[in-house]
Amino acid sequence: MVFIEKGQRIDIEQIKSKTRLSGQALANKNKRDQELARILSGQDDRILLVIGPCSSDNEDAVLEYARRLSELQKKVEDRVFIVMRVYTAKPRTNGDGYKGLVHQPDTSKAPSLINGIQAVRQLHYRVITETGLTTADEMLYPTNLRLVDDLVSYHAVGARSVEDQEHRFVASGIDAPVGMKNPTSGNLGVMFNAIYAAQNMKTFLFHNQEVETSGNPLAHAILRGSIDEYGKNRPNFYYEILLDAIANYEKLGLENPFIIIDTNHDNSGKRYMEQIRIVRQTLINRAWSEKIKQTVRGFMIESYLEDGRQNEPEVFGKSITDPCLGWDNTVQLIEEIYDALAK
To answer: Residue ranges of the DAHP synthetase I/KDSA domain (predicted)?
Structure first.
């Protein structure tokens, strides 16, 4: 096997030094991180929303969205806690398609990982420092965790990564919540094995060193639906499935039972307006069952400035990956969640 070295070597610490949080921004992030931990551990009963664009492809558009979301957060903060999706690396099954900001910081130019790393940190940094929100990202590459470990408040492990040993082990050493998605097969056992692994102490090699983790008690489940052998979507936000997932938590004796419903992907079949119906159905399920209400306490929603998606970045604030709810629909949905929680 031959690897061809391309370009300059990356000095991570030098890149991080330009975008380190300090002062009021750092204090605000620490405060919000503590609030988030209390929500995950059940000490705070607010609903968690991990919401934002499918992919953060344009810094200006993402920041405009963040500014709007920050103002909306202030209006609903007593019942809803928002962490913004700033997803900068996209999984690609066959390697084709837009791979995220970390690969291609400017969609009109060729990929550049050096510039991509800087763009990723700058975007998380600007969202935090300019809007007061904290951010979520997908842990697509575990070895890249240290690029953003001081900025990102919530990490997600995707459906194609959840079976990977390194993702599970690295998640066990993260001092922040990590959401584990069910795999595309829909096998909940795989997801719960990942949560179990992440919640327990691990010893392994990481960055050429032997490391030991203490386990991450805030590792939890994200239900994102699945695809059967015929390519048909199989949603898993239904009442009986939620009870089955809760039973798995109890069976394995996992800490801090917490379930997030991913309203897009294979739950919606990537029909972005279906996200509204899925939220509504989940709120009904919570009203019907105290057990579901105590455990299903979050939504992951794909939302941007404009409805839908486009193949090329022609419309400002419109997704170039999965279709998203536009801003007007997003406001209405969050207000609907807020009102429902008062009943």
So the answer is: 34-333
Is pLDDT above 80 for 7? no
- C-beta separation of 51 from 301 below 8 A: yes
* Cα angle: 328, vertex 48, 67; to 5 degrees: 45
Q: Is the full-model pTM beyond 0.90?
A: yes
Q: What is the pLDDT of residues 72-129, one digit of tens each?
A: 999 999 999 999 999 998 876 666 788 888 888 888 888 887 888 899 999 999 999 9
Is pLDDT at 1 greater than 70 in this prediction? no
What CATH architecture applies to the domain 16-313? Alpha-Beta Barrel (3.20)
| CB contact at 8 A, 259 and 220 | yes
Return the ∠ at Cα 156 (arms to 96 and 286), rounded to 5°: 120
